[in-house]
Design brief:
This protein is mostly helical and 209 residues long. The chain has helices at 2-16, 20-23, 28-43, 54-66, 76-91, 93-98, 102-131, 154-195, and strands spanning 137-141, 144-148.
Length: 209
């Protein structure tokens, strides 16, 4: 699916630099909401146990009808959903203005640190918050016995998850503000060494709609 995303990105970049989105701008209030909802549903396609929910099972059966034998189904629908979402953003000035809210801009600012840190925090901080008071017990599952921590109750999740998200987003904000600029300086230094310090113009024109 990597090649599909690469070519889609090239197409969307060309589309963004063209006049085509301007021609559909006045209708974006009509087509943007259903396309966004559809793209979010597709991006929510689970990586396993797709038959546990009717909607994901429906997508799985649809994929089996159109895909070659032994094709990778796990990333097909999320990839298609992501491309549909980007296409809607390119075509809809109303959606771009909505996503330009300062809270969305902040989420975009910390998105890469969030991608880097969330796995480590889930395996350390979240695991400790959820299971620190649990005792490991023997659980029988499908005729086999395993030693594992029992799942916490709903009240624990209700209390722990907000605390975890506060910790995670605080850490990602700190990373974006205090740590990431150093990597930016390193990247700029490497660019200056490779290309010189002369001013380089933007490769693509900037839209002002």
């Amino acid at each position: 699916m990597v090649g599909v995303n690469v070519f889609s990105g090239v197409i969307f970049a060309e589309l963004n630099a063209s006049e085509i989105p301007l021609r559909f701008a006045k209708w974006s209030r009509l087509f943007a909401p259903p396309l966004v909802i559809c793209s979010l549903v597709l991006m929510s396609y689970p990586s396993q146990f797709q038959d546990w929910a009717p909607w994901s099972d429906f997508l799985t059966r649809g994929f089996m009808k159109i895909a070659p034998v032994n094709a990778e189904k796990m990333r097909f629908w999320p990839t298609l959903g992501a491309q549909l979402f980007v296409f809607t953003i390119v075509m809809s000035p109303h959606l771009r203005r909505f996503l330009s809210h300062r809270w969305f801009l902040w989420l975009g600012k910390i998105s890469f640190p969030l991608y880097l840190l969330h796995g480590s925090f889930m395996r350390s901080v979240l695991a400790w918050l959820l299971f620190s008071r649990q005792q490991i017990t023997e659980i029988e599952e499908e005729g086999q016995k395993h030693m594992r921590y029992p799942l916490p109750g709903v009240p624990t999740f209700v209390i722990v998850m907000p605390v975890f998200f506060v910790i995670l987003f605080t850490a990602t904000h700190f990373w974006a503000v205090k740590v990431e600029p150093y990597f930016g300086v390193m990247t700029k230094t490497a660019e200056d060494i490779m290309f010189g310090k002369s001013e380089r113009s933007s490769a693509l024109p900037i839209r002002k709609d």
